[in-house]
């Protein structure tokens, strides 16, 4: 799969998720086979105002895969200015958010609200492309705003014409949010047929078989995985193997799962400080507990994590509940 100057093996990309896909999470995904990763979304307007938190969101550190910075905003000029401000960052690609359904994002005209105006989408891409120094610009979008505004094809065409190197399509409208069993593979397939640039399919990918089925039915060039990969970074290796016709790797042991969580939280503490990191680690830990015995006890313990050493008590509980 060719994305600008990046030549990548078919596989899965770690989708950007606010509050989750920090540098530690992205490194773990890359280590286990994600073909590239993307930061949490960064406000273009905040960047132009010199916001310090935005700089932390863009931090990556040593990584085993290319990574992209995701910008959100609704004004082409501001998006272009933000892209120029981060031109010296060592990122590999710049992703534009046209898919976030969160009320506070769409109320500003950004995120999935942009799906209502394909022309504006194209002008935003053009403004960003002009400031990236040749590094590829990608777009993350939805199937549309609602049932009456399924504009993914028009938006994808406008973005391609403006210089986008890839589009990722979440197969739900903004109105559908994250409702189960609502992903439209047809919407992804139509975008793939409408443009010549690579297309990633996104939505409800929870296994290698899900990824294979999406590629079979849509013709997409790869997939983007979000929530299912939290607590299960091994999913990237499984999907990568499946899409390239290789045997799937063995499932991780319980000990490997817990050690991955420990490593991730340690790196979070190193980069953010324990006070900030441990508050965020509670949600990360909950995902690692999926499918284990003693769910109620383990959830309670995850929600009480306050210090890095508390992980030892959590892991003791995991084994006390009979997990092996």
Automatic annotation (TrEMBL):
It is an enzyme of class 1 (oxidoreductase). Catalyzes the synthesis of 5,6-dihydrouridine (D), a modified base found in the D-loop of most tRNAs, via the reduction of the C5-C6 double bond in target uridines. Its EC number is 1.3.1.-. The active site is at residue 100. FMN binds at residues 16-18, 70, 140, 170, 226-227. This is tRNA-dihydrouridine synthase. PANTHER family: TRNA-DIHYDROURIDINE(47) SYNTHASE [NAD(P)(+)]-LIKE (PTHR45846). The lineage of its organism: Bacteria, Bacillati, Bacillota, Clostridia, Eubacteriales.
